[in-house]
Amino acid sequence: QVQLVESGGGLVQAGGSLRLSCAASRRTPSLYTMGWFRQAPGKDREFVGAIRGSDGSTMYADSVKGRFTISRDFAKNIIALQMNSLKPEDTAVYYCAANPFGTLRTGPSSYAYWGQGTQVTVSS
Description:
This protein has 124 residues and is mainly β. Helices cover 0% and strands 48% of the residues. It has strands spanning 4-7, 10-13, 18-24, 33-39, 46-51, 58-60, 68-73, 78-83, 92-99, 113-114, 118-123. The strands form two sheets. Strands 2, 4, 5, 6, 9, 10 and 11 form a seven-stranded mixed sheet that branches. Strands 1-3-8-7 form a four-stranded antiparallel sheet, with no helix packed on it. The radius of gyration is 13 Å and the shape is globular. The N and C termini lie far apart (40 Å). The model has no long low-confidence stretch (mean pLDDT 96).
């Protein structure tokens, strides 16, 4: 089975940095695409970025390009989201997700497995 657990959320000042981690269960296939999404109050779930298991290719939403970086540690089964130059608009619950088809997709429906989410709050 695939189980995902996010951690690392918290409160940070605008301009600061935060690193989120997603711990995937040991048997999560390495070819799965791992993605990050976020959902702010009153808004739809939004794609943040993803990393493809086959070649490590990444894709990011325009709103976070140049500020956020996704990495994957296969030995530790951890997918990290490094967030720099944070803005109040980044405030949301952040979710880790897995796409079993191994493709880079932005739609939440492409991801079959989800973590419980971790809150990120950026103050001005």
